[in-house]
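Let us practice reading a record.
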Amino acid sequence: MHRLLGRQIRRALATDDDAATDDLLQRLAGMDRSQLPADVACLVEGLHDLLRRVGETYEQHERDLTLRNRSLELSSGELTKANAKLREETAAQARVLTALRSSVNEILALGGQPPLPEDDSGIEALTAIISQLTHERAEAQRDLERQKFALDQHAIVSITDHTGTIIYANQKFCDISGYSAEELRGANHRIVNSGLHPREMFTDMWRTIGNGQVWRGEICNSKKDGSLYWVDATIVPILDDLDRPRQYIAIRTDITARKSMEAALRESERRLQIALDAGAIGLWMLNTRTDEAFFSDQWTAMLGYGADEVLPCGETWRQLLHPDDREATFAAFEAHVAGQSAAYNVEFRLRHKDGSWRWVMASGRVIDRDAQGRAIRVAGIHKEITDRKQVEDMLKEAVGRAEAANRAKSEFLATMSHEIRTPMNGIIGMTGLLLDTQLNREQQHFANTVRTSAEALLSIINDILDFSKMEAGKLEFEYGPFEIRPLVEGVVDILAPRVKGREVELTYSVLNDARGVYYGDAGRLRQVLLNLAGNAIKFTETGSVHIGVRVSQDFDDMMRLRIEVVDTGIGIPEAAKANLFTMFTQADSSTARRFGGTGLGLAISKRIIDMMNGKIGFDSSEGKGSTFWFEVVLRRSDEQPATHELDNPLDGAHVLVVDDNPTNREVFEHQLHNWGARVRLADSAAAGLLAVRHAQQGGDPFQLILLDHHMPGMSGLDLAAVLRADPSLHDLKLVMASSANPSDLRQGDNALRLDDVLSKPVRQSDLLDSLMTHLGRSCVITASHHPHADPSEHVASFALRILVVEDNPINQQVAVGLLAKLGHRADVADDGAEAVTLVERGDYDLILMDMQMPRMDGLTATRIIRGLADDKSGVVIVAMTANAMSGDRDACLAAGMDDYLAKPIDRHRLAAVLDRWTAKIIESRGDERTACVAVAETRPAETAPSAPLVDDEIQVDLRDALGDEAFQSLLGSFRNSISVRLGEIRAAMDAAEPGNVAAAAHSLKGAASNLGFARLAQVAGRLERAGKDGNGDLTLEKDVVDVARETLEHLTRPGVRN
């Protein structure tokens, strides 16, 4: 810029700052002219050129002056021309300045600013104002850019011409529509039309914006992929000079999510209304401050009112509320309002328009609280439950009746269990004693049959009791530490007699990783294993039954044990597999007839394993055998095993196993390998003999042969004879496994010189003891006792003075006989009262106390004994009962009993109880107490149909067990007692004493049942239950008298000796 022009502009701007002047001119040049009036914009646009020309003019002026100075010598004519030209140019510059001033004033006027002062017409002033305008234009442009950026970040923007053709689309529009900017530009806005709206809507829109007005509405558009989206749109028309739209700017906001929520809300409201209508549910809302309320139409209709008949306030509800329900209802409401409960839930009665009371279930919640947490509004629902309340009342009544019936059933079960187990105690006990006497083969067979039948009946009863307990949900588990191998061996010991004399091999194996002490219910696991293995033996006529235990999964201190029972029996038909674990189900009816059983065992086993969170199953092929298995997860116990084996106790020993049974060979091989022995197997005596010769020739002879007794062809005895005949084998040890009596083989042919005979199934501990003894190895097993001696050989090392308290003569004889066999001395008391007298006079170590007796029961007698002097009260008292109810356990403890022995009593369990107390009796005379053993709790069986007058089977068994003379004596005593008992019943009825009726009927029932007079026992039992009930039908006395008369007639018939 020419300095003179700059000076003029600075003068006009009243400043001496060149930089400020330059900045003003730059801003003026960069101003957005689109926002300025046309003439001002034209002036601003020409300002730069103007200044350039002015500057050029100054430059030209200077050149001219220079030229004039240099051309003074020129002629005056030339100077005159130059002066004239200069004047013209000066005049032109003046005109330019005037025009520029005029233009600037117009710009200022458009901007609402005053015009330039008249005296401020220099170039400097114009330059200053132009610079200012340029700066303002640039700032305005920047503001517009920022506003556009902000708008683009928030809104979907598009600009169309007056026909709707898109000329601009921001990135938001592209993102939501799926089109690119290139695809949108030049396209009509109909490209995103969804077709969802009616034509009339778009007609109204175009009419509005065509008239220059803003239109706003919600539009559903279509994306490129065809999916829909909703926008809230505002369309602004841009008008030209004639106020006609030339462009449309559309600004939209995405409201798709809101629309989806609104749709979902509408659907939810629709469903809610359907549910409220269908369920007759009324809505209510209460303002706790104003007491204003809202009741829906369903709410008022529920109570028989119209909507206009109920005042919308809380007092309406309070007036309709039943007086008896107000206190509890208001308390629940206030507690929730105070924030003391998560919800308001209560049931109460409201008065119907017809005056009746309707039960209502109310649920509500505070929906508004103020800043201090105080409730403002509470809303909820009411549902009429009058019908439900009536049903509940009926159910309560029915439950009461059912509980009464259940109590009656429980009493019936207790009685029936007592009555069943009492004669069974006599049968099992007497046959046990009988088998210990000198019997011929036929007599021994008969006695064994009786005992086996009684034990089978006991097993069935136990299954039924377990089943009833499961149905009642009262099956109990007792957890404690136990060892798995002794548990399996115990099961094998119990089942071993079942395979005696049969062509069935019973074997077991417990892998090393499964051994140890676990924490669980050993009794229930034993019960399941006994059932599975017992079934396998029952359904296997020839072959083998093998029990295997291994760890299937190890999780730190938890083990998943898998116990399998593999048999070669009859297998299971495909059609029967689906229902095998169903109650009272067997493979088919012929199986039940052939092998017996209730079909309960597997079902009970499955229920037990399920309750232990385990699994049970089977694999079977008909005619090929079965594998039953179960898995349970048990925790390893910290306790140490009772026995401990050193590693490799038979290290390096060379042993030959000769057995035709592959399962036996596999089991022996596994056991011997685990003990470190070198094992060879032979499947026959001939193969064994060949193996012995080869070993000799190879210079590595066998040190011991484990040989089976019974093998096809050459037996184990034959092989032993051959081996003993060879002098070169005189050091070879022979150990035989046999199912025969080991003592018979040991005392047999001395030429065989068997080193040891092991009874099958062979216990692992017995096998190791024998092998170590005969191989000259030192003992490596420490145990608390030697495994399981035969209970029949048990004789007490300390004879106890025992009092048997039992009212049943047969049970008296059984108990005394068993105690004598065990080496103890026993006295007998017929009831509790006599027992108290004998204890006061005598000095007993232990009392076997029946619980249910006439005159004084066992519980009462125990309480009295515990109250005697110190030297008498401390005697050990063991309960004896046939009652199957677990309530006996608590009753025993409460009365002061020390232990519990369930009937029928067998020698093994009796010996175990006595052994448990002998040491304590010696040391402290029984001051310590132990918990009673839990007994099965179950439901009674249904009442049996009319019984026969005489059960011949019971009487034959009794005659065989007691002898004819003792049996006839019992019959005579019973005949004489009938009239006495009938007199007692009659007297108790005349005195209206139902308890005494029950006691006399119980005595008559027990005697009749034990002697086989089944019908009399049955009717007496019914009369007993009626007497115990107190309100029972005592007219049953007539039935008792009638059946008693029949019984007496039978006893007096010829041929019936008594």
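A brief commentary: The two ends are 158 Å apart (CA to CA).
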